[in-house]
C-alpha cells in the first residue's frame, strides 16, 4: 500500500513539476513580449484546475496513508491553490487575467509563485523518491 501511494505521488509530482516549468516559460514569454497577454492568460488558465486537482490528489494520498509530515508539507500549497481559485473576481477571465496581469506587478508575483512552486515540487519529488 505504501509503495503504491508513493509511486502515485511521484507520478503526480512529476506532472506538477512539468506544469510549473510550463507556467514559468509562458510567463517569461509574456515578460519578453513574445506572446500577448490574452493568449498567455488563456494558456495558463487552462491548467489552473488540473494543477489544483493534482495538488489535492497528492495531499489526499498522504492523508489517507497517514504520512502526517508529508501531508502537512503539502497542505499549505493545496490551500493556496484553492484560495487563488476561489478568490477570482467576477468578470475576470480566471486566475490569470489579461487586463490585470501587467498592473501592480502581478506578472512578477505570478513568476515568483511559479518559481516557488517549482522548488516545492522538486523537494517533494525527492521526498517521494526516497521514502
How is this structure best described in words?
This protein is mostly helical and 131 residues long. 76% of the residues lie in helices and 0% in strands. The chain contains 5 helices and no strands. α1 (2-31) runs antiparallel to α2 and α1 packs antiparallel against α3. It is elongated, with a radius of gyration of 16 Å. 25% of the residues are buried.
Which structural traits does this protein have?
mainly alpha; 5 helices
Quick take:
The protein has 131 residues and is an all-alpha fold.
Kindly state the percentage of residues in helix: over 70%
SSE succession: HHHHH
Question: What is the alpha-carbon Rg in Å?
Answer: 16 Å
Measured between the Cα atoms of the first and last residue, the distance is 13 Å
Stretches with pLDDT under 50, minimum 5 residues: none
Average pLDDT for all residues: 94
Taken as a percent bin, the fraction of beta residues is under 5%
* Count of beta strands: 0
Helix-strand layout with pairing:
Layout: H1 2-31, H2 37-45, H3 48-64, H4 68-86, H5 106-129
Helix pairs in contact: 1-2, 1-3, 1-5, 3-4
Amino acid at each position: 500500500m505504501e509503495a503504491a501511494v508513493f509511486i502515485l505521488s511521484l507520478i503526480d509530482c512529476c506532472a506538477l513539476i512539468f506544469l510549473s516549468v510550463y507556467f514559468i516559460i509562458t510567463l517569461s514569454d509574456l515578460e519578453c513580449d513574445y506572446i500577448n497577454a490574452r493568449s498567455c492568460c488563456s494558456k495558463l488558465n487552462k491548467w489552473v484546475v488540473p494543477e489544483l486537482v493534482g495538488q489535492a490528489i497528492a495531499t489526499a494520498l498522504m492523508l489517507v496513508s497517514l504520512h502526517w509530515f508529508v501531508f502537512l508539507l503539502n497542505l499549505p500549497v493545496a490551500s493556496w491553490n484553492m484560495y487563488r481559485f476561489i478568490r477570482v473576481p467576477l468578470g475576470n477571465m480566471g486566475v490569470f487575467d489579461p487586463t490585470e496581469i501587467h498592473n501592480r506587478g502581478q506578472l512578477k508575483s505570478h513568476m515568483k509563485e511559479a518559481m516557488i512552486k517549482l522548488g516545492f515540487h522538486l523537494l517533494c519529488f525527492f521526498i517521494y523518491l526516497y521514502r
